[in-house]
Amino acid sequence: MKIVRSLIVSWLCGTSLTISPLSSQQPEFSKPVWTTDWEYSEISALRVLSDGRVLLLDGRERRLHVLASTGKPLREIGRIGAGPGEFQEPLGLVAMPGDSTVVIDRGLQRVQYIAGNLTFGRTALFPEMSEMGPNKLTRADSRGRLIFATFFHAQTTPRSAVVRWVPGSRRVDTLATLLYPPMTRPVRVADTLIVRYALPYRVEDGWALLQDDRIVTIRANPYGVETRASDGTLTRVSIRAPQVPVAASERSNFIPAVRDSMPRYKPPFVASSIVSGTDGSVWIPRYRAQDAKIRVWDVVAPANGRHVTRTTSRDQDVLAVTRSGVYIAQKGPDDLYRLEFHAHSSH
Questions:
Q1: Nearest to 20 by CA among 40, 38, 6, 41
Q2: Which three-class secondary structure state does DSSP give residue 99?
Q3: What's 52's DSSP letter?
């Protein structure tokens, strides 16, 4: 894939790289190295261990599966409950140092540790500091501190913050601020109940965590990826993406109060599906048109500013990226999912 670059200097006293990506008309991930025989109701999260084994979380069934490096099912660990080794509403897996893993359990408002030998360890309650604690996008730095995005309300523009938390402590440090998605105007849904709804196709910033513990911010307007070096220098990879209109049929799925507040165009990317690769890459899925048969991913390597586009089918979702390849959830005609592993190509 050819990469076209042009350098623009003095962007907020930093460096900006504007790259015009190329797009493909066909999905690239059509020949996996292996595909699981089992089908899953949902593949909520994935954790790839150093020996190639995979922890696969089916949040809908509340089951945590252990797969061999070939995708063969080995066993399940944990069970539904509130005690040690149990969970109520697991929604995320966090890769910790030394092959250990943390399960994010929204139902019990806690994190549960799993050692490298797949035995369950201690738990820690979520910090009491915001309206949203650790979530499915939670990551861990090299010291085992959890990084996640939360939000707070301001009198003017609501903002979201990327914060760092040591499980078991009360200290929460703010690392970056993001654009928070707008809400609808207050809507009365009962005689005494007034609520505000999250606006569909809302414009919001995203984030990712690099292997050297730096935070990458993905800005929605204008679309681009920002990374700050240790000396304070800001590098920006600007990405050009076509505007995707919200179709009338997509609007009709919502109540009038929401539908009337929806934007004309979708934002450039889906912030809730950004993937931080262990190979130093950041995979950002663009919003697609309703009838599109492919999904475009902007793949950025912040270390050198390299940017390419990759394409999957509309029924494929990238879950994890390692130095050896890409793990993808493939949705079937029965609405069940299989896990696929694809080796890296020459891109």
A1: 6
A2: helix
A3: S
pLDDT digits (tens, 9 = 90+) for 239-265: 999 999 999 999 998 888 788 888 899
**93 within 8 A of 47, measured Cβ to Cβ:** yes
For residue 249, give the H/E element and its range: helix 248-251
Tokens at 47, concatenated: 């954790």
Instruction: Report the C-alpha gap between 347 and 342 in whole angstroms.
Output: 13
Q: What is the pLDDT of residue 199?
A: 78
Per-residue pLDDT, averaged over 81-108, amounts to: 95
The Cα–Cα gap between 300 and 125 comes to 34
The burial class, CB within 10 Å (0-12 / 13-18 / 19+), for 154 is exposed
Taking every pair of Cα atoms in the chain, the longest distance, rounded to a whole number of angstroms, is: 61
* Token duo for residue 66: 């252990």
Strands of 45-48's sheet in order across? 45-48, 54-58, 63-67, 73-77
Query: Rounded CA gap, 199 and 220, in Å?
Result: 15
**Number of other CB atoms surrounding residue 227 within 10 Å:** 21
Pair 85, 115: CB distance under 8 Å: no
* Distance in angstroms (rounded) separating the CA atoms of residues 251 and 229: 42
In the DSSP assignment, the letter for residue 314 is: T
**Cis ω for the linkage preceding 134 (within 30 of 0):** no
Query: Residue 303 in contact with residue 229, Cβ under 8 Å?
Result: no
Please say whether the beta carbons of 29 and 316 come within 8 A: yes
DSSP secondary-structure letter at 333? T
Measure the CA–CA gap between 47 and 138, rounded to whole angstroms: 12
Q: What is the pLDDT of residues 303-315, one digit of tens each?
A: 899 999 999 999 9
Please report where in the chains the tokens 């592993």 appear, as a residue: 341
DSSP-based three-state secondary structure for 276: strand
In contact, 15 and 62? CB cutoff 8 Å: no
